[in-house]
Amino acid sequence: MKKITIYELCKKINASLLRGDENNVLTSINSLENATENEIVFINQNKFIGETKKTCALTCLTSQNLAPELQNFKNVIVSENPYLSFALATRLFASAHIKDEPKNINSHVSNSFSFISETALVGKNVQIGHNCHVGDHVVIGDNTTIENNVVIYDSVKIGNNVIISSGAVIGSQGFGFAQDSEKWVQIKHLGGVVIHDNVNIGSNTTIDRGTLDPTIIGKDVIIDNLVHIAHNVKIGNSTAIAAMTGIAGSTTIGQRCMIGGMVGIFGHLTITDDVIITPKSNVYRSIKKPGRYASLFPLVEFRVWKKISLLLLKLDKIKSLYK
Asked: Could you tell me how far CA 277 lies from the centroid of its own chain?
């Protein structure tokens, strides 16, 4: 377990202690919901202030502007670039975030050229194909099938009766970076992935690990080939996602949704239960009402499409004529 004083942490992440005891020891960084007294949390938006009353954490990293609103924290660390400081903190605590130490009880589950970590916990009747990688602290439930050339990174938890098709990558590093002058600093994603029972994941699909809390795939979800699911996405039970769909980070999708092929879903959105999204749609706002949604025109001749596009650009002018 990583241990570092607040004073040492501030020096390493270019921050300063606004209020509290610089000799207090921190062991990791975590989310507001799951943090313990000895862990630090990151707060960068007003919308999270209400949640701070429920956290067990005593230490927070924030901006100078938000600091006055965080009176319930014993230790308040501020930074001129809090997002960059957060990125540096995740890198510092990367090894400390793993708390469990499962042991491999099924070492016989191994095929040619596959690697299974000694700290992985593999259930009964698990089938693992050729050229697979199963990382540290992975948990795989009973009757699960991992086909050829699958990569499962550290701290991924997979339920029972799951099928992961060839070429899938589960638990990869999320696309999170903070800007420091002219370079990008990678945020280490520590949250892992949780895949519940009876999930089917298609070939060459990628599911990124969460930043602090895990990316979650609910039970009975079916995911087609070539789908990308970014960090901290949550997908509800029995949802179906067709090929070449991309879901950006921190989006929550409800239960029994049907998402067509080549759909693009923006980040930090919420899609309620029982939503159908037609193929090639772009979802740029949250969907609060069940139903069928579309965002693109049907196929037309290019000359017709060009006229429609020009009319769309002139809608404001056309509307003003009728005021």
From this structure: 21
